[in-house]
Each structure stands twice: as structure tokens, then as C-alpha cells.
């Protein structure tokens, strides 16, 4: 078995930077997913509580039409949570975000002049975390990429620039992800 040639210190520094950038983007992605899903869960719970209360009040008042509508809204809100499991998925993203933060800490502590075997270990740790990730929303990932490019003062040419429509629906699903400008980790 042939071994790959050793990386130069400059190549190690460049690979370290790419890995660190990708990990930081992943942290931002999972924080956004967690916040959105927690908000969706809270909105569903509020809807169920309000419509359930309205159904009970309507039942005592004898308002059959209001009772039917309130009961239907309560059922839809409950079904939404059963199908999409927003609270459980939010916790998953919280855990993944924490793992990426821990990996980011290791990368920062290791610095750019880390030995090549350590760089391989850190890459493998990232792959271990990514193996547990649900499929990514590509537009949301591109938004996180652009946000990080801006935060780090990197050249604007590295941005993916999703459209307003894409940004609007990014927390839910991808719209035209194939039309995103390909972005490269700096």
C-alpha cells in the first residue's frame, strides 16, 4: 500500500483553516436549525393550547361550529408535532452543534502548525459527527457560509448569495439549491 506524501507546513495550515471554517459553518447551521425547530414546536404547542381551550369553551357554550373548528386546529397542531417531531429534532441539532463547538475548540487549541497525524484525527472526528447529521438544507448551509465569510472579512467573491425567496424558505426546505453559486471553503 502506497502512502500519500507528507504535507508541507503550508499545506497543513491550509487544511487546518479549511477544517476550522467548515466546523464553524456547521456550528452556525445547527444553531439555526435548533432555533427554528424550537420556535416551530413552541408555535405548535401554543396553537394546540389555544384551540384546545377554545374547543372546551365552545363545548360549554354550545357553539358547535366553533367547537368543530377549534378541535380541527388542535388535531392539526398535534399531528404536525407527531409527523415532524420538531422538539426531538431540535435536540438533535443542539447536540450536534455542541459536538462541533467542542471540535472547534480542539482545532483552535491545536493551531495551524499541528502535526499531520493530529490533523487526520481532527478530520476523522468531523466525519464522525457528520455521520450522525440528518440531510442538510443546502440553501441554509449556504446562508451560514455567507454569514461566516462576512464575519471573518473574507473576500466577497466567496459568497453563495442565495436569493430572497431562497432565504425565506431556507429553514423549511431548499428552493433552487442547484442555482446557488458554488462556494469554496477559503
Radius of gyration: 23 Å
Runs in which pLDDT lies below 50 for 5 or more consecutive residues are none
Per DSSP E runs of 2 or more residues, the count of β-strands stands at 0
Strand residue percentage: under 5%
Helix content: over 70%
Report mean pLDDT, rounded to a whole number.
90
Shape: elongated
Q: Largest sheet, if any?
A: none
Total helical segments: 6
Write down the domain tally: 2
What structural class should be given to the helix and strand makeup? mainly alpha
* Series of H and E elements: HHHHHH
* CA distance, first residue to last residue: 32 Å
List keywords for this structure.
mainly alpha, 2 domains, elongated, 6 helices
Description:
By secondary structure, this protein is mainly alpha-helical. It folds into two domains: 9-134, no CATH class; 137-186, no CATH class. Helices cover 73% and strands 0% of the residues. Helix 1 runs antiparallel to helix 2. It is elongated, with a radius of gyration of 23 Å. The two termini are 32 Å apart. The relative contact order is 0.14. The model has no long low-confidence stretch (mean pLDDT 90).
What is the compact description of this entry?
By secondary structure, this protein is an all-alpha fold.
Q: Strands, helices and their partners?
A:
Layout: H1 9-61, H2 64-84, H3 86-110, H4 116-130, H5 138-152, H6 164-169
Helix pairs in contact: 1-2, 1-3, 1-4, 1-5, 3-4
Amino acid at each position: 500500500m502506497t502512502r500519500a506524501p507528507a504535507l508541507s507546513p503550508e499545506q497543513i495550515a491550509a487544511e487546518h483553516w479549511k477544517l476550522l471554517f467548515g466546523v464553524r459553518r456547521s456550528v452556525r447551521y445547527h444553531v439555526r436549525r435548533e432555533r427554528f425547530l424550537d420556535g416551530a414546536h413552541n408555535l405548535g404547542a401554543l396553537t394546540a393550547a389555544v384551540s384546545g381551550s377554545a374547543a372546551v369553551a365552545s363545548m360549554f357554550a354550545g357553539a358547535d361550529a366553533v367547537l368543530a373548528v377549534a378541535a380541527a386546529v388542535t388535531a392539526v397542531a398535534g399531528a404536525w408535532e407527531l409527523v415532524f417531531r420538531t422538539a426531538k429534532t431540535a435536540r438533535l441539532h443542539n447536540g450536534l452543534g455542541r459536538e462541533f463547538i467542542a471540535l472547534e475548540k480542539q482545532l483552535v487549541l491545536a493551531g495551524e502548525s499541528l502535526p499531520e497525524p493530529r490533523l487526520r484525527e481532527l478530520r476523522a472526528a468531523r466525519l464522525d459527527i457528520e455521520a450522525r447529521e440528518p440531510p442538510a438544507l443546502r440553501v441554509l448551509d449556504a446562508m451560514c457560509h455567507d454569514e461566516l465569510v462576512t464575519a471573518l472579512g473574507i473576500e466577497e467573491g466567496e459568497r453563495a448569495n442565495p436569493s430572497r425567496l431562497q432565504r425565506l424558505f431556507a429553514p423549511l426546505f431548499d428552493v433552487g439549491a442547484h442555482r446557488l453559486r458554488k462556494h469554496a471553503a477559503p
